[in-house]
Amino acid sequence: MTKIDAKILEKATAWLAPNFDSDTQTKVQQLIDNNPKELTESFYQNLAFGTGGMRGVMGPGTNRINKYTLGKNTQGLSNYLKKIYPNQQLKVAIAYDCRHNSKSLAETVAAVFSANDIQVYLFSDLRPTPELSFAVKYLNCHAGIVLTASHNPPEYNGYKVYWTDGGQIVPPEDEEIIQEINALDFAQIKFEAKNDLIHLIDAEVDEAFANASVANADFKSPEKDNLNIVFTSLHGTSITLIPEVLKKAGYKNVHIVEEQATPDGDFPTVVSPNPEEPEALKMALELADKVNADIVIGTDPDGDRLGVAVRDLDGNMIIVNGNQTMVVMTDFLLQQWKNNNKINGKQFIGSTIVSTPMMGKLAEAYKVECKIGLTGFKWIAKMIKDFPELEFIGGGEESFGFMTGDFVRDKDAVTATLLACEIAAQAKVDGSSFYASLIDMYVSHGFYKEKLVSLVKKGMDGAAEIKQTMIDLRENPLTTIDGSKVIRIEDYQTATTTNMETGKTSKIQIPKSNVLIYYTADGTQIAARPSGTEPKIKFYFSVNLPLANKADFEAVEKQLDAKIDRIVLEMKLN
């Protein structure tokens, strides 16, 4: 049997102490006795916050999601809240998704908060993540928690922390909270609930959130009965709200994929409950062909991201990527604001450093500002907080997230679903379509084509491989890409941008992050970043060409696809 590292064994043995329950002690002892590899994976590090909070595999150990790692998070957050808001009656809201153990972990988190004399507003059943963001503001809470692992595999769960503005925690709060957590021992967690401080919430907040979604995304598109919609919640939480929001906005022709409508943490009908993956929408696309649907929408398990499929110019269903959905939605919102004479130079849209450069082109065309932040919607929420003098119109990121208005401070598939239907309904009345609208934008602003390549690297060895890849890209940078010279490299880890022609460097005014972006003379962009929530390294490609007219669309698209394929091959990522 493989020998167990002494430090790993010491950490694991500590979990055999009486302050850990008997079930945990038994599982840890079994790992010590029978599975040194899994024991090492479970204890070799402390599970840390990434771009979306804490996310990981469930099980015993410091590198796993369990009642103790989340209890320690919650105790640390409780201590921090008391320090920041002294002599106040503190309030937090808690929501959870459909995953295994989400409800029991949410109840554990509620118990710890209440044990620290904090009022808790706990949803009585599973709810979409954006509703938690809304609830924090609606109930005037100091913080919020969602128990979710988004679109990760079934063995994962997670813990997202929201602040008083309804957005996820950002600097300086995130690091200060982490310091409080790291200063604790597991024995210091207060698990004894004060039940009189725990309040269940449901219908009132549901109604308020649904009404706010309609208020922010219903643009009174005509002939809504003529729009034929297929919707799937992929066994997740959005089934609790999206059908109701569509109904409130006047959409009656909605076909739900019933086989995927029941929340289920095993996600039995899909390989991955990720709307970025075409396979996840397979059943919805099959139903769309049966009922001749105009649009298909599928959401991830916690209801904050959406995948969209629409009819192409030949009438075939095609999945549009997150960048394409984002620019169509943003353009529609900007046009509505323009039609109502609401644009006066004091508005902005938001995006991220790995999303399509086309967002900047839209901002120029409509004479609004485009603010760019790091990956993760918490940075777009922070923009709203940091620039109160500007009105936020909408914004998104390439990973299938979008936010309409600022009533929610996180990506919101509930409201974005309604917005997508509004766009499709209006386009249909105009003799166009969602997809044709996208091509019109390419003619106006340039044809930008993006692709994401994700390489899965699990465990300690995978983490080391990802680290080495980023080191190599920094220390041995590419000088040409597909025959085009690299003219600039942005390194967000050092917060510097380097002109490769002159060698001059300048500072990037964005928080540091492990992201590297190459820019070439022909307008190609390639970004590399390790995922903050999954064992992956991600490569984001953006290429572009002018599009003179719709008739050239297919030919130019083939050129762009071929270019991306050549780059992927050149970088040995296939």
Automatic annotation (TrEMBL):
Name of the protein in its database record: Phosphoglucomutase
UniProt organism field: Kordia antarctica
Lineage of source species: Bacteria, Pseudomonadati, Bacteroidota, Flavobacteriia, Flavobacteriales
Coiled-coil regions, chain positions: none
Family: Belongs to the phosphohexose mutase family.
Cofactor entry: Mg(2+)
Gene3D superfamilies: Alpha-D-Glucose-1,6-Bisphosphate, subunit A, domain 3
Entry-linked CDD domains: PGM2 (cd05799)
One example of a Gene Ontology biological process annotation: carbohydrate metabolic process
